[in-house]
Amino acid sequence: MKKEDKERVVAELTELLRTSPTLMVADYRGLTMPQIDELRGRLLEHGARFAVVKNTLTRRAAEAAGADALLALLEGPTAIAFLEAEGDLVSVAKALADSARETRVLAIRGGILDGRPVEAGDVEELAKLPPADVLRSQVLGAVTAPLTNIVALFSAPLQDLYGLLDARIEQLREQGDTSEPESQPSGSEPQGGVEPAAAADVETPEPPSGSEPQSENETGETQTEEEEQ
After folding, report:
1. Is the CB of residue 97 less than 8 Å from the CB of residue 124?
2. Parallel, antiparallel, or unpaired for β 48-53 and 78-83?
3. Quick one: pLDDT at residue 209?
C-alpha cells in the first residue's frame, strides 16, 4: 500500500473513531468473503459500518483520535463494527453473536461503549436483551409508574372533598333547603351580612311612626284594622 493510501486510511479511521463512540471488535480469521459481506449487510441494516482493518494503521488512528481503549483489542486479524448515531446497539451485538454462533469462526473480542471499554462477555450479554423498541416500552413503563402513584396521592384528597360537599348538600336538604348551595368568592361575606342559617332569627323591623299596624291573614295578604272590622 502506498504511503498516500495509508494516510487516507488512517484519516478515515480517525474520523470514524471520533464520530463513533460505540464500536465492537471481532476476530474475523477464517471467515470467507461471502460470509464477511453477509455480516456487513446485516450490520448495515442496524446502523453499523463493518470494516476489516490493519492493526498498524488502526493504532495510529486510535492514538490520533484519543481512543486509547481500542489499542488493547488490536491483536490478530481485526474487524470493527462502528455504530452510527441512529444505530441499534442491541441488534448490532445480536448480529455479531449470531454470526459467531453460526460460523463457529468469528470471535468477539470486546468493544467500546460510549467511550468505555467493554469485554466480549458484555457484548454477548447485550445480544440477549430485547429489541430496542421493547426496551423503550419497558423504560417508559418504569418511568410512568411513579407518576401514577403521584396522581393517586393528589386525587385522594379531592375525592374526600367531594364526599364532604355531597354530605353537606344532603344535610341542607334534610333541613328543608332543597336548593343547591351557590358558590361565593372565597373570603367574601354573604349578601346582607347575614348568615343564611340565621336569617330566620332576625327580628322584623317596627313599622314607620304614624302608619297603621298591619296584620297578615292565613293567605299571606295584609289588611288594615278598618278592613278587618
Report:
1. yes
2. antiparallel
3. 47
Distance, in Å, from the CA atom of 93 to the CA atom of 37, rounded to the nearest integer, reads 17
pLDDT top residue among 88 and 223: 88
DSSP for 9-49, please give it.
HHHHHHHHHHH-S-EEEEE-TT--HHHHHHHHHHHHHTTEE
C-alpha 13, offset from chain centre: 36
Helix (H) or strand (E) holding 55: helix 55-65
Joined grid coordinates for residue 41: 449487510
- Whole-structure pTM over 0.90, yes or no? no
93-102, 130-139, 147-156: which is most confident: 93-102
pLDDT bin (cut points 50, 70, 90) of residue 11 is: very high
Closest CA to 65 of 106, 25, 20: 20
Q: Which neighbouring-strand residues pair with 90?
A: none
Nearby residues of 183 by Cβ (< 8 Å), 6 or more positions away: none
* CB contact at 8 A, 88 and 126: no
Q: Which helix (H) or strand (E) holds 225?
A: helix 225-228
Pairing verdict, β 215-216 and 222-223: antiparallel
Angle of helix 55-65 relative to helix 3-19, nearest 10 degrees? 50
